[in-house]
Structures are given as structure tokens and as C-alpha cells.
Amino acid sequence: MVDTGPDMRQQLLDADVATVNAVIWTHEHADHVFGIDDLRQIYHRLGHPVHGFARARTGAELRAMFGYVFDGHHGYPPTVDLQLLPDKLTIGSIAIRVVDQPHGSITSAGLRFEAAGASFGYATDISGMTPDMQALYEDLDLWIVDALRRQPHPTHPHLSQALSWIEELAPRRAGLTHMDHSMDYAALMAMLPDAVAPCHDGQVFEL
């Protein structure tokens, strides 16, 4: 699972998911971490702390905000075993590659997943495209990329910026995520290129 957003519990219920192999945090902003307490129920289902991975700075910020989750508190055991997120790792049958992405004054973790001959990239909360990111996201079956709004923003890509990256990197399919209220689904579908679409809650992709 990537990140623990505030509605993580409802998302897992809707998807009928009761356990996860691991959690990867892209960065520490509230909309990506504030569902972390609901990992306690997964801890109880597993019978051991949930495996968690984050880059060094993100991990330090998570520990500062939620120390009890990782260290326990007042007799309550830790619910997450937090480890450093390396540039490459394998979870189950999924090979994962990671790069650091600019996100305003901080960085987020960019992720590429590969399994059974399929590839999927996840690039949320970014404010630019680096050579490392370009190498990570080339030749993808599916790329999920941040596209906050039509107007420029200091820490997120706007729509035309995201579309220019999609055109350059040429994934076989692309989904737009992290959109604000100004990004109307029907209006976007009427103007987006083939094989590009806005994502929506509960969406499932098959690769």
C-alpha cells in the first residue's frame, strides 16, 4: 500500500482488503499520512507490526508526529516496523524502484512497480521532472501522475505540464491524480488525449 491517507480505512473496506504486505510512504504531508492509526487493525490481523518504508527525512518526520506508532507508548506495542526505503526493493513478487522527486521545499518518493511483465509508475506530489524521474518512468504500461489543476501551482504540476510529461514519456496508459475541485471529470474526459483519463475513488486498473 502507498501512503495512509485520512480515508484509508474506508478505502480498504470498499476494496475488501484486510491485510497488506507493507506500506510505503511517499512523504509526510497530512493528506498522505493521517490515516496511520488505522494500521492498528491491520497489525491485529497480521499478529505482528506492519512493515513500513520511508525515505530518511520522511521517516524522521513520521516518527516526530506518530512516535507511538513506531515505538509503542504506555504499554501499547508498536504497530509499524519502520525501515529505510532504499532505491530498490522487492515486496512479495513485486520489484520496486524509487527516486526522490522535488515537491516544493521537500521531496517525495517516486515509485515504479514491476511484476509478471507489467510496469506501473506512481508520481504524486511533484513540482518538477528530473533526469532520474524520466529514467524511472519511461516505458510504462501505466503511469499515475499528479495534475492538481489547470493553473500553475508552486508544489504540484498543472494540467498542461502533466500532459507534456505524458507525451514525452509515452506510457501506454496514464491516469491523472491529486486533482482539486476545479478539475471536472466530464470536462476532462472531453478534452484529454486517448489513453489518458482522470482517476477516481475506487478505481481498479488491470495490467
Number of domains: 2
Q: What topology, given as strand order, has the largest sheet?
A: 4-5-6-7-8-9-10
End-to-end Cα distance, whole Å, is: 17 Å
Helix content: 25-40%
User: What coarse outline follows from CA principal-axis ratios?
Assistant: globular
Q: In terms of per-residue confidence, which ranges show pLDDT below 50 for 5 or more consecutive residues? A: none
According to CATH, what is the class of the largest domain? Alpha Beta
CATH names the topology of the largest domain as Metallo-beta-lactamase, Chain A
Mean pLDDT, as a whole number?
Answer: 97
CATH architecture term of the largest domain? 4-Layer Sandwich
Number of helices: 8
> Which structural class is indicated by helix and strand composition?
alpha/beta
Can you say what the CATH homologous superfamily of the largest domain is?
Ribonuclease Z/Hydroxyacylglutathione hydrolase-like
InterPro entries: Metallo-B-lactamas, RibonucZ/Hydroxyglut_hydro
Pfam families: Lactamase_B_2
Enzyme class: hydrolase
EC number: 3.1.26.11
Give your account of this protein's structure.
- This protein has 207 residues and is an alpha/beta fold.
- It has 2 domains: 1-85, no CATH class; 86-199, 4-Layer Sandwich (Metallo-beta-lactamase, Chain A).
- Helices cover 28% and strands 27% of the residues.
- The protein is built from 8 helices and 10 strands.
- It has helices spanning 8-14, 30-33, 39-46, 56-65, 67-71, 131-136, 159-169, 185-191, and strands at 23-24, 50-54, 80-84, 88-91, 94-103, 106-115, 118-123, 142-146, 173-177, 196-198.
- The strands form 2 sheets. Strands 4-5-6-7-8-9-10 form a 7-stranded mixed β-sheet. A 3-stranded parallel β-sheet has the order 1-2-3.
- Strand 4 and strand 5 form a beta hairpin.
- The chain is globular, with a radius of gyration of 17 Å.
- One of its GO terms (molecular function) is 3'-tRNA processing endoribonuclease activity.
